[in-house]
Amino acid sequence: MNNFIFQNPTRLIFGKGMIAQLPNEIPAEKNIMITFGGGSVKKNGIYDQVMEALKGYKTTEFWGIEPNPSIETLRKAIELGKEKKIDFLLAVGGGSVLDGTKLISAGLLYDGDAWDLVKKGSSTETIPMGTVLTIPATGSEMNNGAVISRHETSEKYPFYSCYPVFSILDPTVTFSLPPYQIACGMADTFVHVMEQYMTKTNQSRVMDRWAEGILMMLTTIAPLIKENPQDYDLMSQFMLGATMGLNGFIGMGVPQDWATHMIGHELTALKGITHGASLAIVYPGMLRTLFEKKHDKLLQYGERVWGISTGLPDSRAHMAIDKTEEFFRSLGLATHLSEAGIGDDVIDEIERRFNERHAAYGEDGDVTGAVARQILLNCK
Amino acid sequence: MNNFIFQNPTRLIFGKGMIAQLPNEIPAEKNIMITFGGGSVKKNGIYDQVMEALKGYKTTEFWGIEPNPSIETLRKAIELGKEKKIDFLLAVGGGSVLDGTKLISAGLLYDGDAWDLVKKGSSTETIPMGTVLTIPATGSEMNNGAVISRHETSEKYPFYSCYPVFSILDPTVTFSLPPYQIACGMADTFVHVMEQYMTKTNQSRVMDRWAEGILMMLTTIAPLIKENPQDYDLMSQFMLGATMGLNGFIGMGVPQDWATHMIGHELTALKGITHGASLAIVYPGMLRTLFEKKHDKLLQYGERVWGISTGLPDSRAHMAIDKTEEFFRSLGLATHLSEAGIGDDVIDEIERRFNERHAAYGEDGDVTGAVARQILLNCK
User: Fold this and answer.
1) B contacts of A204 (beta carbons < 8 Å)
2) A-chain residues within 8 Å CB-CB of B17?
């Protein structure tokens, strides 16, 4: 096991009706900016619940944080927030609204252009933020990470700042999600777990079991949720699992990969592919490309998550990859670049970008531009 | 899944050599009281490492916090701390030193006798404390719980106050632990997990898998550690697992039991049985007494943790209990009251105490004095 330091201060407030707890979590004197996405929260009643809970608070609304939140939009929020002297942020939405609000949180205390902060990669000077999560997927509700895009140049980078002070997760808010968003959220959660798990064997027995536990939960509930997307218990399992998939709890002392995410971010930046969908395309090809180095962990994964216990080792490891791809397909997601209309020009550009920034991703830092090309060729 | 609120602010600093990180964690101006147990840390080098790291700090040492820390001892520490105007506590030891220091932390800000706080059950007004853990067992390093004894009256009660600001876990400090302490620590961790898991089925898929993951880790490494008590990797797994067993991570949204702990505390208070050893005696008898209500979860536990998948349900559930008892015995621990020289007078007294305080423990609040008697009769 590697040495590590772990801390996660976010207060998780979970369950039906918990949005009404907002006044217990935000001091009465705070001047709040509430950030939103496109407006679905007005249709499903979440907006009304939030505003009802915040009666008596001084609030400013900022609407329009889009999927893959852009610096272009966030600059406007930061400008408004400075003008209104905002000292608390409440993000109401999915991972994109939460991610964007993390940059706003840092941008409000920064004099220059917030894109500087994204290029720097992190900022610890932030104003406090809370969240009301509406889509289980990114884990942003209980970590300090964000991913920010710049439309102008088709760039997309990770950015680290504050942990939310609190996050409210009411599974009933997911009842109105379109099936495609649920599918992408499941793929996102699945690959978050895999990025922290599918590396080397014999690192941490507990972390391995915990990662496998989330994966098994997902593969079991996915077909059930397809039939019953408004089942409170099933959506609770999914919502809690998505948060646990990327809050550091399964990453203690273990090597981590994240190459698939870095390639997926480029597909989103260049072609607008939804984040979870980009991972479903890249992940099976990544496993096939790095088959040798991930061989032993593939055997463990295949046996524990998919019950693959007979056959020659190579055949079992391949079967584990096939099962993974089948899982994504069962969600209704594409698993090939061609299905998403992505051609060689994109592969060339991703290799070029990786080379330009001397990319060295993956648990051993050996996923370079050339390896990324190979992975993408295996995703065609 | 039940509604819940989860937050755990403790900073976990894990790995070989991490004691040297102390100066990064305690502000230079702090006036620190360092609390210790009986002196083993002077023999195994931990004392020297701590004092080396704290060179330049203003420190006061308090020695002699005993196993099952007593109010009688802790009053002296509180008196000394007030006199020295201590504003930071560093507990260096096992769960007892940590638990005792949690009461000191509250007692330093309380004008009356600290036993009032124990009787009240909790106190949120505390001065900050950090820990250097030397025995994996109680989980006190990453939760806000403590158990405090009063020798004068043979009483022992839970008490809740502060989470440690940080806890340093260096697995090498466990290399000099006597086998009996390791065995008791393993039983303690095992039962902590069971108290949060062995209740009802279909509550939380992820929490169930996580609990089972810690149990499987323990049952796998226990025989290996017996052979290799100085194996860094094995002791890392144990140390991390013990912390994860009682820091709230596996208790989100699930019903919890804790009846065995309440009975075990009485055995310790009345007869001085080591905490982990008391749990090994009570737990199998508790399962046999409450066999019907825990039947379905016993089947799940038996199959997933012990691989019991054939036979009639009742026989499988009984086999799961037998396996649990065998596990405790494999650690070298007694599993019957008679082996510990405990007779009917103690059973009578525990029933009397439970009745006096209108005890209603367990996940359904139905473990009364009469049920506790039945459990203890099944432990004879």
Assistant:
1) 236-237, 240
2) 3
CATH number of the domain that residue B70 is part of: 3.40.50.1970
Both B182 and B168 in one domain: the answer is no
Alpha-carbon distance of A27 to B295, in angstroms, equals: 47
CATH code for position A259: 1.20.1090.10
**Cβ-based contacts of A205 with chain B (< 8 Å):** 213, 216-217, 220-221, 237, 241
CB contact (8 A) between residue B213 and residue A236? no
A236 min Cα distance to partner chain B (Å)? 7
Give the number of other CB atoms < 10 A from CB of residue B203.
Answer: 20
CA distance A106 to A113: 11
In a domain, B4, yes or no: no
- Alpha carbon of A66: minimum distance to chain B alpha carbons (Å): 30
From the centroid of its chain, how far is CA A334?
18
In this structure, is residue A3 part of a structural domain? no
- Residue-range definition of the domain harbouring residue A83: 11-173
C-alpha to C-alpha distance for A59 and A62, rounded to whole angstroms: 10
Give contacts of A 227-266 with B, CB under 8 A. Answer: 233, 236-237, 240-241, 244, 249, 252-253
pTM: 0.97
pLDDT along chain A (380 residues), means of 10: 98 98 98 96 95 98 96 98 98 97 98 97 97 97 96 92 97 95 97 98 97 98 96 97 98 98 95 96 98 98 97 98 98 97 96 97 98 97
Interface contact flag, A205 B216, Cβ < 8 Å: yes
Q: Identify whether B244 is part of a domain.
A: yes
Shared domain check, A15 and A33:
yes
The angle subtended at Cα B209 by Cα B203 and Cα B210, nearest 5°, is: 105
